[in-house]
Design goal:
It is built from 12 helices and no strands. It has about 250 residues and is an all-alpha fold.
Length: about 250
């Protein structure tokens, strides 16, 4: 007798979609978490070293959640800096997020709550990881879980560092390099995936020019130069493509 067709067909995957998305997001973020946790520990240690209570670490990481700005915010809070100065510092330090918003796949996130959290949790790491996810797999659950996990790594590291701060009054040497190492790994991963040498060369050139002409505002000027370079490259490629199409 012929085999029962039901016996030949594979069993359907009964794993919940959200579980699959969480597993994928965990795989996406695990390498980033290895760098974010020790960096968060360094932040927590610095909170205690600055004379603040341990609970300032999760408070900063929840309501600010911007790594470099959080380090700066510790000094601003301790010095009782006016709110206007804090706001200006926030704009200058996080101005690069304006450019992130131009290409972050927010259109793949459905629902007002999910969109709101995704915008709030748009960090450097989340931006880089979102572009590592293939376009066909950018679902709401996967993107949001990816951002939730990134924030969890950062918050847990900060709390751990703050609780250890009483026993370790000084920040161990070398932990500050975790942020630089993290961005280096993300840049290498992006290059291995896209094999686009032009973009990193334009970025390096923009940074060097900004360093020479505007050292104090290097980040903002460098990002503006990089945006202009990418715009020119896009226009040239588009014009070249139109000429080839007409030929």
């Amino acid at each position: 007798m012929p085999a029962n067709p039901d016996e030949l067909s594979p069993e359907p995957d009964t794993t919940p979609v959200h579980a699959n998305a969480f597993a994928a997001a965990l795989k996406d973020t695990i390498s980033v978490g290895v760098a974010m946790v020790p960096l968060g520990v360094a932040f927590g240690l610095l909170v205690i070293e600055s004379g603040l209570s341990w609970w300032w670490a999760p408070l900063f990481s929840t309501f600010i959640y911007a790594g470099s700005l959080e380090f700066l915010a510790i000094g601003l809070v301790v010095a009782a800096t006016p709110l206007a100065s804090i706001a200006l510092s926030t704009v200058l330090v996080n101005f690069r997020h304006v450019f992130y918003a131009l290409s972050f796949p927010l259109h793949a996130v459905r629902g007002p709550l999910a969109k709101t959290y995704s915008m709030y949790a748009l960090t450097d790491e989340a931006y880089a990881l979102a572009h590592h996810i293939p376009a066909a797999e950018r679902t709401t659950a996967r993107i949001v879980w990816m951002q939730v996990l990134c924030q969890s790594y950062w918050v847990s590291g900060g709390v751990a560092g703050a609780l250890l701060g009483r026993a370790l009054p000084q920040v161990p040497q070398g932990m500050w390099f975790a942020l630089t190492a993290l961005f280096t790994v993300l840049a290498l991963d992006a290059f291995r995936q896209n094999r686009d040498l032009t973009s990193p060369m334009l970025a390096i050139g923009s940074a060097l020019v900004a360093l020479l002409v505007a050292r104090d505002e290097m980040l903002v000027v460098g990002m503006l130069l990089f945006l202009a370079a990418l715009t020119v490259r896009f226009a040239l490629r588009r014009a070249r493509g139109e000429r080839v199409a007409r030929a």
